[in-house]
Specification:
With 461 residues, the chain is of the alpha/beta class. Helices cover 42% and strands 19% of the residues.
Length: 461
């Protein structure tokens, strides 16, 4: 894929960039290593000041960078501005909490004495330069949720962003520069995916984090494993949205629409499979379908647009193939399902019912505004359908029954279980998945410690 801004609302190529050459990549790696040697000892007070300054700048830039994101990947502009605000919030959260999250820990006195020590500490020390391979769907948020904790921990970052959001990638480097960070603390590498392996194998890179597709995760993890380097992976998701008889059906149906079509349906934690108890299936399906039909699809720069285009032509083609395969195999189209005429890579909000395991859409992730409906006879079947997926990122459950709540928490194979609301990420809570959705955690104290050398400091008696 060329490094270029291609407007998905029109298909027009607006700006192209040359990939960095080997000499410039080498210079940036050397700069990162040299900067880390001094930045790692920067006091928390200074790290906090710098990150707060970056958050202030991002908030001031929200209108402009929001428009840039919309033009590059098609998200509704009001959602783009909200993404910028969310990033500023996370930056401030880590600026204010990092020191306490990484404070020295002292084991129990009895264990210290039992080990023959006079004192024992567990200290969190930074690893060094970390490579971040990031996707286009949340081009600010995915980066900031890595960068904010990494920088507060004393690491430095090198960003290989998706090739279709180069302007956002360059903005991020400039943001940290304007905030006053030393050169080399955060650098954007405009390179193609073919350059990732050599960069990751470079001994100056100490770890890597990737958010993206399963194939991309496999590629990065295999190289990092060969080099024995730490990785955190957040990959695909096909999150279940389970509705039980005790749920508020009206509220569940309204929330289900947002949970499915946020970011034009291109979110790993978007609800994708709607598993509804048979007693309330018809009522939910009717309301949900009506709400999906009522969405406004159009120019993402228009403030009234609910759903914009799919970010890439290939992404839309993949979506068309999944829907067509399902329909040919017997799925019922409750709304949408037909490719519209005109420019841009639009696809209508679509609801499919009568899904069977033989259909590709049953096991593959739908990255666009397409929902699948399942009827469950009881709680056991709801759990079975929910877990019948290679992914395990998050999940949504609508129930007021405490016994059902306990059962879903116990049995759902996912990194999160959200009751009576939609999955959302927050800086205070760990984020990540299981199965083919990846491993490791971002955000919270768990996230900031992922790229730390957890060091035991033992003093003899």
């Amino acid at each position: 894929m060329p490094i270029a801004t291609v407007n998905p609302a029109t298909g027009e190529t607006l700006k192209t960039y040359d990939a960095l050459g080997e000499e410039e990549i080498e210079r940036r790696l050397a700069t990162a290593e040299a900067t880390f040697d001094t930045y790692r000892t920067t006091p928390y007070t200074e790290r906090k000041r710098l990150l707060h300054r970056a958050a202030d700048l991002l908030e001031a830039d929200a209108q402009d960078i929001g428009r840039t994101m919309t033009v590059e990947m098609g998200k509704p502009v009001k959602q783009a501005r909200a993404e910028a605000a969310k990033c500023a919030k996370a930056m401030r959260w880590y600026a204010d909490h990092a020191e306490e999250l990484l404070a020295d820990e002292e084991p129990a006195k009895a264990d210290v004495e039992d080990s023959g020590a006079s004192r024992v500490l567990v200290r969190y020390r930074p690893l060094g330069p970390v490579l971040a391979v990031m996707p286009w769907n949340f081009p600010l948020w995915q980066v900031i949720r890595f960068a904010a904790p990494a920088l507060m921990a004393g690491n430095v970052g090198l960003l290989k962003h998706a090739s279709n959001v180069p302007q956002t990638a360059l903005y991020l480097e400039d943001l940290f520069r304007r905030a006053g960070y030393p050169e080399g603390c955060f650098q954007t590498l405009l390179v193609g995916s073919g350059a990732i392996e050599d960069i990751l194998r470079d001994p100056r890179i100490k770890a890597a984090t990737l958010t993206g597709s399963e194939p991309a995760g496999r590629a990065v993890a295999s190289v990092a494993g060969d080099e024995i380097k730490k990785t955190v992976l957040e990959l695909g998701g096909s999150d279940p949205f389970v509705v039980m008889p005790s749920a508020d059906i009206e509220q569940a149906a309204r929330t289900a629409v947002t949970a499915r079509v946020q970011n034009n349906g291109q979110s790993c934690i978007a609800a994708k499979r709607f598993i509804v108890h048979t007693d309330v299936f018809d009522a939910f399906a009717e309301r949900f379908t009506e709400n999906m039909k009522a969405l406004t699809v159009g120019d993402p720069l228009d403030e009234g647009t609910d759903v914009g285009p799919v970010a890439t032509e290939q992404g839309r083609d993949d979506l068309v193939e999944l829907v067509d395969d399902a329909v040919e195999s017997g799925a019922t189209v409750l709304c949408g399902g037909e490719l519209p005429d005109g420019d841009g890579w639009y696809y209508p909000p679509t609801v499919l019912a009568d899904i069977t395991p033989e259909m590709r859409i049953h096991h593959e992730e739908t990255f666009g505004p397409v929902a699948t409906l399942y009827r469950a006879a009881d709680l056991d079947e709801a759990v079975a359908i929910a877990n019948d997926s290679p992914f395990g990122l998050s999940s949504n459950v609508w129930t007021r029954d405490e016994a059902e709540t306990d059962r879903f928490v116990r049995d759902l194979e996912a990194g999160g279980v959200f009751f009576n609301g939609m999955t959302a990420s927050h800086p205070a809570y760990p984020f990540g998945g299981t199965k083919r959705s990846g491993y490791g955690r971002e955000l919270s104290g768990h996230g900031i410690r992922e790229f730390c050398n957890i060091t035991t400091v033992w003093h003899g008696a």
